[in-house]
Amino acid sequence: xxxxxxxxxxxxxxxxxxxxxxxxxxxxxxxxxxxxxxxxxxxxxxxxxxxxxxxxxxxxxxxxxxxxxxxxxxxxxxxxxxxxxxxxxxxxxxxxxxxxxxxxxxxxxxxxxxxxxxxxxxxxxxxxxxxxxxxxxxxxxxxxxxxxxxxxxxxxxxxxxxxxxxxxxxxxxxxxxxxxxxxxxxxxxxxxxxxxxxxxxxxxxxxxxxxxxxxxxxxxxxxxxxxxxxxxxxxxxxxxxxxxxxxxxxxxxxxxxxxxxxxxxxxxxxxxxxxxxxxxxxxxxxxxxxxxxxxxxxxxxxxxxxxxxxxxxxxxxxxxxxxxxxxxxxxxxxxxxxxxxxxxxxxxxxxxxxxxxxxxxxxxxxxxxxxxxxxxxxxxxxxxxxxxxxxxxxxxxxxxxxxxxxxxxxxxxxxxxxxxxxxxxxxxxxxxxxxxxxxxxxxxxxxxxxxxxxxxxxxxxxxxxxxxxxxxxxxxxxxxxxxxxxxxxxxxxxxxxxxxxxxxxxxxxxxxxxxxxxxxxxxxxxxxxxxxxxxxxxxxxxxxxxxxxxxxxxxxxxxxxxxxxxxxxxxxxxxxxxxxxxxxxxxxxxxxxxxxxxxxxxxxxxxxxxxxxxxxx
Length: 617
Prior knowledge:
Distance between the termini: 47 Å
CATH class of the largest domain: Mainly Beta
Strand content: 35-45%
Number of helices: 8
CATH topology of the largest domain: Porin
Low-confidence stretches: 1-56
Helix content: 10-25%
Shape: elongated
C-alpha cells in the first residue's frame, strides 16, 4: 500500500495541472469545467463519495481536485489555498476580459450600423456581421489590457498593496539594556576633566582650579546601574531609475553622534516622555547592478570597518559618498569608497566682540571643519562559505586643530574670543587639549590671576591611516570562525607640539609632584575572534566573541569611536568578551563584559557589564 501511493500522486499531478489551466480560461466563455457534459447523477455520486469532508463541494472541478489532494496528503493546506486563490484571481481577470470584449464588439457594431445608416437611403435595413476572428482579436487585446491593469493596481488580488506602496519598506529595532559601570579604587577623580562639558557650556575660570570649586569632571569613582532603551524606526523607498530615499528616527538622551540610548528615568524622570531624533535622511543613486552607489544626506558609514576601533558601529555620516565595486574574476571583487563630510559648519552670525587692536565690533571668521576620506580594498571568496577581505583607508580631519586667539579682553563668562569656535562641538574623552584664549592681563582680572575664563581645543591634527582585515572560516557551516583585526596610525601626529601645549595626558613628575611630559600616543589596534552563527536570527542561533583593544590618546578623533568600551573615547586598553543567543525569530539576548584602563595621563579604570534583549522587525 505504501509503495503505490507515490505512483498515484504522479498520476494525479498532470491531471491537476490540466484542470488548473482549464479553470483559468473556461470562465471566459461563460462555463465551468463541471458544466461540460457532466450529468447530474455523476455529480451527486461524487458528492456521496466524500471527496473532501473538510471543504464544501465547489462547482469548479479544479478546486474539488485540490481539496481531494489535500485530504490524501499530496498537498499541504497552505499550498492548496495558494492554488485556489490563483485560480480564482485568473478566472476573475478572464471574465473581466470577456466582458470588455463583448462591450467593445457591441460598440463597434453600433458604430458600423450608424455609419451605414447615414450613407444609405431611408428605409434601408442592414445586418452587421462581426467576424469571429475579429472577436478573438478584441478579446485578446482587452485581456492583455485588463491583466496589465490588474497587476499594476492589484485589484485582481484582494488584500494586496498598490504598486506605489510596494516600493516602500519599513524596518525597525528595539533594544532593552541593563548597564552596570563598576569603578575600582585608585581612580583620580579631581583631574578627570570633562572638556566636553566645558566646551559645550560656559568657559571655565582656570584661576579656580586649585580652589574648592574644581573643573567639571567625569564620574570615575561611583558605580552606576542604568536601565536603557534604544528604539529605531526606518523607511526606505525605491523611486525610479536607480534612485531611492531613506529616513530613520531614533531615541536618544541628546544629539550625541555615537549613542541613541535613552536611560529610563533620565531627562526629567517621573515618567516624562522622551525625545526622538532624525537619525538618517538621505537620497541614493545606484547603477550598473548596484556596483556603483552615490549617497547624499545623512546615511550609514560608507567605509567598510569590521570593528569599532576607528568608527562607532552606529555612527551616521553627513555629506556625500561614492562607493564602487567590480568583480574582476570569480570570487575576487575590488572595491573603493570616497566621500566628503562636514563635521562643523560655522553659525552664520557667530561671535560679536570688541577687537582690542582697532576697537571695532565684528563678526568672527568662518572655521568650518570637514572630514575627507578614501578607502580601497578587495573581497575574496576562496570557498563556498569562507571569505577574506582587506582594505586600507586614509582620513583627513580638516581644520579641527584648536588655535590660539588674538589678544582678548575677558571680563566675564559671556565674553568671546575669535578662536572659540575651533573647540570641538562634541567629544568623548581621551584626546589631548590646549587652552585657546590669549587673555589680556588687566586690572579687571587682577593682572592675570582671576576671571581667567577659558575654552579648550585639540592640540594636534588628525590624519589617520586605517588598515582593516577579516577572515571568515566557514568549514563547519553554519558555525563560523571569524577573525577581525584593525590597525590605526595618525600620520599628522607631532609629539613636540603635544609636549609644548598639552594640559592633559601627561605623566607625573615625581620630583615636583606636578604633571610631567606628554605620554600619550598616535597608534591603536584591535583583534577579535568570533565563533558561532554569523548572524543571530532564529531560535537557538548563537555566537561568542573575545578580543583585546589598545587605542592611544591621539590615534584619531575621540568623538566618533566606540561609546561603550571604557565608557567611550580613546586612551584606553583592555579586553572584552560576550555572546548572543536567539530566543525566537529576530529576537535575541546579548551579554558583554568590557574591562578598560587608561594608557596615559591620570589613573582611570572601569568595568562595564551590558545585558541586552534585542528585537528586529
